[in-house]
Amino acid sequence: MGQFFFDKILQNDGWKSNQLITTNAEGRITSIESANSANNATHITGLAIPGFQNAHSHGFQYAMAGLAEVHNISHTSDDFWSWRDAMYKLALSVNPDQMESIAAMLYAEMLRHGYTNVAEFHYVHHDKNGEHYHNLAEMGSRMIAGAKSAGIGITLVPIFYQKGGFGKAPTEGQKRFISPDIDSYLRLLESSSDACSNYEHANIGIGIHSMRGVEPKDIAEIAKSGPQDIPFHIHISEQLKEIEDSIAYLKKRPVEWMLDNVDMNDRFHLVHATHLTDSETQGIAQSKANVVICPSTEGNLGDGIFPLRDFQSYDGNWSIGTDSHVGLNPLEELRILDYGQRLITHKRNTFTSDQTGNSGEFAIQMATAAGRKAMNDFNSDYFKVGSILNVSVLERKSPLLSTCSDDNLASTIIYTSDAVQQQGTIANGVYMESGKCSGYEKIQSDFIATLNELKNR
């Protein structure tokens, strides 16, 4: 059981002062009430907002963050596909112990930046020869172990990866990813679900790598016959070449095909969806499917810019993720997302709706609600009795924040703050000062040892 006294905390209907929140041993909120003083409770003097949801992560790629920026000037192009070759080299070399240490470090850093939950889009399943481990979910189990070490909530999304492209056999570089058919993927999913029982803050989701990575009829079958009560994640329409290949193979664009062949709803999460027609943009919104946008990675890879303003005009819902982890600050992700829209629309009111024109509050609301759905949490209340206490706490002593009215406070946090102002993070009811989890130094030293073993830096 824990007790936390918040000087100032953001609820759905605005900022509240002097709130006492009590939790049980699982970190679930048992009461929320006003109080005059902290007494024996942990006193949170900073500005408390709901913990951020990282709705898309490729954990192992953190080990190559920053390494794909030295370009061969004799090449005319360095794009997603050339970057992918470098990523495959890492995927082919990492072993289970290294995978766990990478995950633990990554998730510890997410917590330090205010993320409290992560959806791990996990596709490195097999050994270095492409053979099954005795435990089909060996590598996924290591992601869960890393999350447990750090203390973050994890939704493990084992990925169905079957093809090397539309109608193409998988390549040698993809041999650790492959489930050849639906039955083999469902066995992996079951094993991964069992692995989640090893950590009380882990759960499971369905994942399809992409339209090019799985035969489309199998995508439709999994969506129809697979579990219906867990999230469904898929990369889609990230690259122009993917769309061109889809039209050649299916006579339809990827999102167009999904809208025509899959009965989507709000448990579906379309990752990137960068290149859309207006009818696709409207169709996703009307289906209630969510889009997961990863601004720092999409910018780093030169993917393009998602049509967010149009999507929001159709009441579309979106969340954020860090994907390849070249950036880990949720505030930065939101700013990149907003500023990209401002640059292409020449308008400043990106984060608004019919209900609010407060950009900061809108960004927090959208990223929280849709992000939680990516983790199979459909609770839209920021802090509620019965839910897990997850909080990002910003230092209130900053001159810009300390002098701010409530009306401007959320936007000042989103648009002016950085990791230096992260006073702490509460994940699953556990307070981490400065966002650093217990055992942070050990996690860091293990990670450094792993990088030295990999010799890729």
Provide a descriptive summary of the structure in words.
The protein has 457 residues and is of the alpha/beta class. It folds into two domains: 2-50 and 381-441, Urease, subunit C, domain 1 (Roll); 52-374, Metal-dependent hydrolases (TIM Barrel, Alpha-Beta Barrel), CATH 3.20.20. Helices cover 38% and strands 21% of the residues. It contains 15 helices and 16 strands. A hairpin with a 2-residue loop joins strand 15 (422-427) and strand 16. Helix 2 (96-112) runs parallel beside helix 3 (138-150) and helix 2 packs across helix 15 (440-454). The longest helix is centred in the first third of the chain and has 17 residues, at 96-112.
Concise account of the structure shown:
The protein has 15 helices and 16 strands.
